[in-house]
């Protein structure tokens, strides 16, 4: 039983599309999902509030500008996908869960600023293990395990991560920042570099930066790889149901549409949680008393039939949504904590059917799915996918697939 249940903290659940739109934008609703997860989340962007959040977000936002996305999408992401997919494509078979993790771990580490000293698969797998442990620490509020035990494991993992990845990455960036001969456009474009350069303004010491990099590793990797596996699964099943429409999967924009529909149906974080710092008046007139825990049910709001139609539970990449509604619903949150990696993963929504213009970016997940489709991906008939037995959430544990011979 949680502390809130013991002390009977008042709780309110918001679950329609309109309620969540409002809830995410209420300034006196403070992040609360990570109250127990301080070992990793203390002072992380997602757990900051008010001016401290605004300042950090401004510094980190500079990295996530359209120009940087173009660079990531044109150069960085295809290279990382190639490296991660090549062994499976050569073998003619692979596992989507593993492909997803290997790709997104390397990408997220690049964005966070955790250098890979050797670039080996073993290093990627070590990063993944760290991300899993940090994620368990961050979401301690939902853990059924002994909290002190989980905290001790996370502390121990942070120490090893510090020695293996963080210290060399941090020292390299400090040396670069101190060297006037290094031009600005040759500095790494990542979160750690941005924090090192703005350390005084942010009031952030080395320990805060260590936790921020650890937070990014888990925030970016699991959500992306999970979306990738669900996207491949929904598309493969849709293709089987609609062989007459399968040709549309050769169009990048259509693949992106499929992925947006998958984001809506399978939000990586099915709930967000806030605590009311003061009495809050919702747009529908209800007053939420100070101290109330507000649970925002993203999964339910994304299936709100008022907004997404009577068939909102189904995967339909041809679905149209009302003006002003993102096709992924609330999957990336909203308001001050809206996901900073949203465009990196999902790209931008084309302005019209014809395609989107020069600024249009497809996003990492559509690029990964496109790569699978280009190589004739199909489920392995002898090894059906399995769900992750260690998670209460809807995650795949294995997803074996076959590819055309290269
Ligand atoms: C499909 C993939 C992803 C999903 C579904 C997702 C979802 C979310 C959600 C729901 C939030 C807001 C949580 C809240 O309000 O309590 C969030 C925040 C955040 N996400 Fe993501 N995310 C994804 C990918 C990424 C990636 C790739 C990165 C970075 C490389 C990232 C970095 C962040 C950060 C830094 C925040 C905190 C923003 C702030 O507090 O200002 N996410 N994400």
UniProtKB/TrEMBL annotation:
Amino acid composition bias (Basic and acidic residues), ranges on this chain: 376-396
Record has Glycoprotein as a keyword:
no
Is Signal included in the keywords of this UniProt record? no
Positions of transmembrane segments = none
The record's listing under Pfam families reads:
p450
Classification via InterPro entries: Cyt_P450, Cyt_P450_CS, Cyt_P450_sf
Instruction: Spell out the molecular function terms from Gene Ontology.
Output: heme binding; iron ion binding; monooxygenase activity; oxidoreductase activity, acting on paired donors, with incorporation or reduction of molecular oxygen
- In residue numbers, the region (Disordered) covers 376-406
What SUPFAM superfamilies does the record point to?
Answer: Cytochrome P450
**What's the domain of life for this entry?**
Bacteria
Which controlled-vocabulary keywords does the entry list? Heme, Iron, Metal-binding, Monooxygenase, Oxidoreductase
Q: Which PANTHER family match?
A: CYTOCHROME P450 YJIB-RELATED (PTHR46696:SF1), P450, PUTATIVE (EUROFUNG)-RELATED (PTHR46696)
Recorded family membership:
Belongs to the cytochrome P450 family.
The name of this protein is: Cytochrome P450
């Amino acid at each position: 039983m949680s502390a809130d249940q013991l002390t009977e903290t008042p709780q309110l659940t918001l679950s329609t599309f309109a309620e969540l739109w409002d809830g995410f934008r209420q300034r006196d609703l403070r992040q609360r999902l990570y109250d127990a997860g301080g070992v990793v989340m203390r002072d992380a962007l997602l757990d900051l509030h008010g001016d401290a959040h605004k300042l950090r977000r401004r510094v980190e936002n500079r990295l996530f500008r359209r120009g940087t996305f173009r660079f990531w999408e044109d150069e960085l992401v295809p290279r990382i996908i190639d490296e991660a997919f090549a062994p499976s494509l050569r073998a003619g078979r692979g596992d989507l869960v593993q492909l997803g993790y290997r790709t997104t771990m390397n990408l997220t580490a690049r964005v966070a600023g955790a250098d890979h000293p050797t670039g080996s698969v073993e290093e990627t797998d070590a990063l993944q293990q760290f991300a899993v442990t940090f994620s368990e620490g961050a979401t301690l509020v939902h853990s059924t395990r002994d909290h002190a035990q989980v905290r001790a494991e996370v502390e121990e993992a942070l120490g090893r991560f510090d020695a293996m990845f963080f210290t060399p990455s941090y020292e390299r960036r400090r040396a670069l920042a101190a060297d006037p001969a290094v031009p600005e456009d040759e500095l790494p474009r990542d979160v750690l570099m941005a924090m090192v350069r703005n350390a005084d303004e942010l009031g952030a010491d080395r320990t805060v930066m260590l936790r921020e990099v650890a937070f990014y590793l888990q925030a970016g990797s699991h959500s992306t790889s999970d979306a990738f596996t669900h996207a491949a699964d929904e598309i493969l099943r849709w293709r089987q149901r609609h062989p007459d429409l399968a040709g549309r999967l050769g169009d990048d924009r259509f693949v992106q549409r499929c992925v947006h529909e998958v984001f809506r149906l399978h939000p990586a974080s099915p709930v967000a949680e806030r605590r009311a710092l003061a009495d809050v008046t919702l747009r529908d007139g209800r007053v939420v008393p100070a101290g109330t825990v507000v649970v925002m049910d993203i999964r339910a709001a994304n299936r709100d039939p008022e907004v997404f139609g009577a068939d909102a539970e189904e995967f339909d990449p041809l679905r149209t949504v009302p003006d002003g509604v993102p096709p992924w619903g609330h999957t990336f949150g909203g308001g001050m904590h809206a996901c900073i990696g949203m465009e990196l993963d999902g790209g931008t929504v084309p302005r019209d059917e014809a395609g989107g213009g020069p600024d249009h970016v497809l996003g990492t997940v559509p690029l990964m799915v496109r790569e699978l489709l280009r190589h004739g991906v199909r489920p392995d008939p002898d090894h059906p996918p399995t769900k992750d037995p260690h998670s209460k959430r809807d995650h795949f544990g294995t997803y074996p697939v076959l590819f055309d011979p290269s």
